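User: Second chain of the day. Same drill as before.
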Amino acid sequence: MKSIKNSFSELPLKRRQVLSGVGGLAAIIASGQAPVFAQAAPRKLVMAHINAVPESAAAAFDWMAKEVTSKSKGALEMQFFGKTLIPQELEIMNAVKSGNIQMGNPAGAAATVFPEMGALLVPYLVKDYKSAYAMLNGKIGDSFDKIWQDKYKVKALCFFDYGFRHFWTAKAPIIEPKDLRGKKIRVQQAKIFGDTINGLGGNAVPMAWGEVISAAKSGVIDGGDLPVVNMEALKIYDVSKYCSLTYHNYGPTVNVMNLDAWNALNPAQQKLMLDISREAQGKIREATESVDNFAAAKKLLEPRGMTVVETNVEAFRSLAKQKIWPAYKTQYGAMWDEIENFKG
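Assistant: Same format as last time:
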């Protein structure tokens, strides 16, 4: 009589494979392990950001990456790269649009990448943080999202901001509009920022952020403007002595996802991404708004060697309405009216 082992070895190959598979599957089930072929690799979602932790947005999106990975229970693996993967805002956005990475944002260059947002940057048009977020988390934000999906093939995950911009200068504070006369002030490269400085009486010098510190040290520029939260994070106190609280431009931006990558997620995963994005938005808001007042700015910046001063905001606002608003009101039409008359 043949042994069982020998009998098995003489079975046709196909039948032996089936029986071996059944035995192997039974052993796996008995051990409590899922079969290897049922374990799908996590979908990788790479996000690039221009700054590293502890910058406020970087900290929030780094948290978001960990949260998405954890709460998706292995289905998604979000990876956050602050400053190390892609060094420039426009390069980040090109990579998102092309699908080379899945997520990113234009940081302070939002109006360059998404001109539709330009009206929000007109000096003194957005009144305060409360109304800004009511607009961006509501009808206006939804309108932008639809336009960008159709036009740029990206999905808006959350809007955020770095706050209202204030002047930083090396030699003297900017308290009245006349204090800007003759001053060379670095601005971001979107037209509205140059128009703001020129309209308020200064000389705008468009310049990428990577050149700013050396330009300030060499005297090519007399100063620039940043939100308080970024003056500290970007160490502007190394080249600046004064922070003048003028609140002249609101700085909205948006975190987006490549539309094909978004559509590849199932509905539960899409909801997870939106929910956690909104939580990240809240973290950035808190970091920005908590220091954007005189007392908090003094506490944050004066130990770093800067002097924080209050300014004649009404004089700047009046000049902006006179010199800058008319051309942009014509340009943005219905969007302008919606922002100017918004009651959140």
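The CA atoms of residues 43 and 76 lie 5 Å apart.

User: Great, on to the next one.
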